[in-house]
Amino acid sequence: MSLVSNCGCGRHRSELEHEISEQSDEARLVEDAVLRAVVRRDLLSLIGRSAALAAVSAFFPLGAAKEAFAQGAGKLEKQKLKVGFIPITCATPIIMAHPMGFYAKHGLDVEVVKTAGWAVIRDKTLNKEYDAAHMLSPMPLAITLGSGATPVPYTMPAVENINGQAITLAIRHKERRDPKTWKGFKFAVPFDYSMHNYLLRYYVAEHGLDPDRDIQIRAVPPAEMVANLRADNIDGFLAPDPVNQRAVYDGVGFIHALSKEIWDGHPCCAFAASKEFVTSMPNTYHALLKSIIAAAAYARKFENRKEIAAAIAPANYLNQPVTVVEQVLTGTFADGLGNVRKVPDRIDFDPFPWHSFAVWILTQMKRWGQLKGEVDYQKVAREVFLATDATRLMAEVGLTPPKSTSKSFSVMGRAFDPMKPKEYVDSFAIKRA
Amino acid sequence: MRLRFLAGVLSLLFLGIVVGAWHLATLPKAGVAAADSEYAKLLGAQAAVGARSAFPTPADLGRKLAEHVREPFYDRGPNDKGIGVQLAYSVARVLLGFLLAALVAVPCGFVIGMSPLVYRALDPFIQVLKPISPLAWMPLALFTLKDSNVSAIFVIFICSIWPMLINTAFGVASVRREWLNVACTLEVSPLRKALAVILPAAAPTIMTGMRISIGIAWLVIVAAEMLVGGTGIGYFVWNEWNNLSIANILSGILAIGLVGMLLDFMFSRLQKAVTYTE
């Protein structure tokens, strides 16, 4: 696409495109805001939107308000961006935004670059080879705190996906479904600072196994997991999809449990950027985040999932058979044991970065000894998980952002109160802290 | 001539045996089909008949190779380029890293070879640095150089420098005394002595070092690219590993072997060109 923009605000390729998008997006938003402010809701539903608008514009300068709002969205500081991703379905919004035009729609020319592993994606983002990247949601917290990396203030403006992971075991363990019998197993997780690591540790610990002494957990890049399972190097993994489904597809493993059976609605991967990027290029950051949240909103709709699977399966993105990606996204899948399971919320997309998610992740970092000393849970959560921007942009793309930034939830039946993280850590019998 | 012909026949025979054995070993086994056809549809062809997905047959590989040969230079976005494009990236990195290493190693080797003092002073460092696996430098390079492409070139540089340095030093140090003495009696300037006497005398040894270096560099680039990704034949293999496409990985391996052979052949020609008989 052309780098030279030809419209007033600089975000569109032509004056016409600018006007269309202005009318469709921002103008409507302003109209809605004005309507909400001056017309009672019951009246609005009674007389209809256009009639109400006509009535309002008689006494309110709607045109001027729309113009003022449009000028508020400033010029993009940078149009050509590089965003790194790991080829897994967690990255769906980041990846699909490229072939399905969400970046282009927001005036960005984004190159999505496939990356070999989490350590590399971290280093390439810290090196500024990438402007932003797909990360595991604990990574921005770890980078900010300097755990396993040099401390660099990092932000996580959006969660990519919720659920969508699974515990897969080698086919030879078909009969050993009880975790208590897993002593001596070798498991793979994608990275030390991953939800996968914390969920697997949590899961086995709830079944009485010490994840450091009774089983072995090693970090293996997702791409290499199925190959390792096939070679009998590992007994199983808690991995992102499509790795689990691919193991079934190749006849080397079966899906023991979906991660939603451990914690329904858990966050997994994230869209992350350095604080420097967020503050020095606010408009670019805004446009990028909006593209991704809009993509997540599109992916949230179940009827779009097949289309998305077809868009992200080719070699340029996930490089997987379409049926594997489709089984993950639609939740109608073969489990490797001869059953077809139907779990529509196997993976879902909810961009809101709950502060309570960050607090939970920090408690697990603390629990397993990745964080030493005192941690100000709430402060770190607020600084890294940027809920304010997500709230605003989610409303703009038609999602309903929650009213508060914190919620309590339960993991395997154990309730978590985000206001009492210290007590939560202390409540576990098996821990390193 | 006859020997050559026989060797050729024998080579083909070996190839035939290997491919034949491979073909027999990978014949599809008739397993029990999954009872439920809806379930079977969700699986790969092998898993559907109750087996693990199998190693590709020679015919599968042949088909893949034909695909790559038909279209070696396609470019479908930053993460999907033809095998020819990937090879070009790798060769470019290797040559650049190798050239930089040669620029450093040959002059340094000269100094070390001509001066026993410098030789002894630098020897401990060389001995410690030489056996370090070049890939061990990768995290350090990424951290300090802050660019994955430069880091890959640095890794090539660091792995190809040692054989050249040591061979140059050795070649320079073992130039025949008599020739140096002749140069001395004729009162040749040191620069001229280095270029007109020592360089031609040491050239075959230096070229041997270069040939070893380029071989190592080609080995290392594949691993380095698998690590940092992006472009290159190593990335190609990694990406196909990700996809568990063994046929594509084999195509990559074959291409790596062929290019490695070409590089080696080039340097063996150069080596022949500078060899002399006393």
Oligomer type: heterodimer
Low-confidence stretches of chain B: none
Give the biggest beta sheet of chain A: 5 strands, mixed
The top-level CATH class of the domain at 83-274 in chain B is: Mainly Alpha
Secondary-structure arrangement, i.e. CATH architecture of the largest domain in chain A:
3-Layer(aba) Sandwich
Q: What is the percent of helical residues of chain B?
A: over 70%
Count of DSSP helices of chain A?
A: 19
CATH superfamily of the domain at 83-274 in chain B: MetI-like
Apparent shape of chain A: globular
For this structure, the CATH topology of the largest domain in chain A is D-Maltodextrin-Binding Protein, domain 2
User: What is the total tally of β strands of chain A?
Assistant: 16
Strand content of chain B: under 5%
Mean pLDDT of chain A, as a whole number? 81
Which helices and strands appear, and what pairs or packs with what?
The complex is a heterodimer of chains A (433) and B (278).
Chain A: H1 15-38, H2 41-47, H3 49-59, H4 62-72, E1 80-85, H5 92-96, H6 102-105, E2 109-114, H7 118-126, E3 132-136, H8 138-145, E4 154-159, E5 162-163, E6 165-170, E7 186-189, H9 195-206, E8 216-219, H10 222-230, E9 236-240, H11 243-249, E10 253-258, E11 269-274, H12 275-280, H13 282-300, H14 305-312, H15 322-330, E12 332-334, E13 340-342, E14 347-348, H16 355-367, H17 377-384, H18 387-396, E15 409-411, E16 414-416, H19 421-426
Parallel strand pairs in A: 1-2, 1-3, 7-8, 7-9
Antiparallel strand pairs in A: 3-11, 4-11, 5-14, 6-9, 6-10, 12-13, 15-16
Helix pairs in contact in A: 1-3, 1-4, 10-11, 13-18, 14-15, 16-17
Chain B: H1 2-25, H2 37-41, H3 45-48, H4 58-70, H5 83-114, H6 116-129, H7 138-145, H8 148-173, H9 177-185, H10 190-228, H11 233-242, H12 246-274
Helix pairs in contact in B: 4-12, 5-6, 5-8, 5-10, 5-11, 7-8, 8-10, 10-11, 10-12, 11-12
